[in-house]
Amino acid sequence: MRIGELASRTGLTAKTIRFYEHAGLLPPPEREPSGYRRYDHTAVDRLRFVRAAQAAGLSLAEVRQVIVVREDTGPPCEHVRNLLRAHVVDLDGRISGLSALREEVRGLLERASQMDPASCEATAVCQLIPPGGDLLPSPRGRLPTRREVLADVRSGAAG
């Protein structure tokens, strides 16, 4: 099948399919003499797996790892189990952070109900949100530095 039909069957765009192919999530297809890509039925299953793995919270880098494990050593069940365990821990941390942030925002709402907008200082953008670091840090934590992101990308750990 050509890329348009594959896109229709999987709900992806042709551009996304080409991206996945370039990223190593989909093996390069055979080419027709005219240069068109020619995919077999296994491409549909692979792309459905990629979408399902993403829906489960795996990054494309992690999906690629699962595919490599499958191709190199067979069923990747233990590898996937470890990835899912790590995601549960990450989700628990995010949920905890979001719960704390919710309480902080509730506190801001309470504060807002007691403040008079007329008393807002001209130098403040909005007195309801104090700029002095009174709020909790972002539930996602600090952003990685450019160097950290590039190191992860080079090591294959980027997500």
What attributes characterize this protein structure?
159 residues; 2 strands; two-stranded antiparallel sheet
Description:
By secondary structure, the protein is mainly α. The chain contains six helices and two strands, in the order H-H-E-E-H-H-H-H. The chain is elongated and about 75 Å long. The two termini are 31 Å apart.
Number of strands: 2
Q: Could you state the order of secondary-structure elements as H and E?
A: HHEEHHHH
Q: State the major sheet.
A: 2 strands, antiparallel
Given as residue ranges, the uncertain stretches (5+ residues, pLDDT < 50) are none
Nearest-integer average pLDDT: 86
The radius of gyration is 23 Å
Beta content: under 5%
> What is the overall silhouette?
elongated
Note the topology.
Blueprint: H1 3-10, H2 14-22, E1 30-31, E2 37-38, H3 42-55, H4 60-73, H5 77-113, H6 146-155
Antiparallel strand pairs: 1-2
Short description:
The protein is mostly helical. The chain is built from six helices and two strands; from the N terminus they run ααββαααα.
